[in-house]
Amino acid sequence: MGIILWIVFGALVGWIASMIMKTNSQQGPLIDIVVGIVGAVLGGWIMSFIGKTGVSGFNLYSFIVALIGACILIAIVKAVRRT
């Protein structure tokens, strides 16, 4: 994927993940992009352990993988901030 597509994909995934994890009011658009992109990498890494492919383009499977990774990333950050 091109850099512009990664940014758009990351923004969309980060925004939806922040709504699911109820952190939308604490994050801005830049954080949504970062969470989405890092979440896509994390989700792809987790899926490689299961034996599946990671993020392979702008499709529903990649969106779900990235969304799972972004939600896990937000949960980790929330857990670290509480302590």
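Second entry:
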Amino acid sequence: MKAQELRKMSVEELKKKADELKQELLKLRFQAKLQGLDNPMAIRNTKRDVARVLTVIREKELKGEV
């Protein structure tokens, strides 16, 4: 997921996307503890995506686009 794609979305859409990513991260963590992951980098990539979305939300807040 690219930051440019995220900047085109509204704040409401970004918040929804952040919630979805957090849920996915939770599922990945459970799966990693219970049975292991096929792709161990999935947790790291999802965490980065969450951070990227939250950063774009903050940028929009500072610009006054909320």
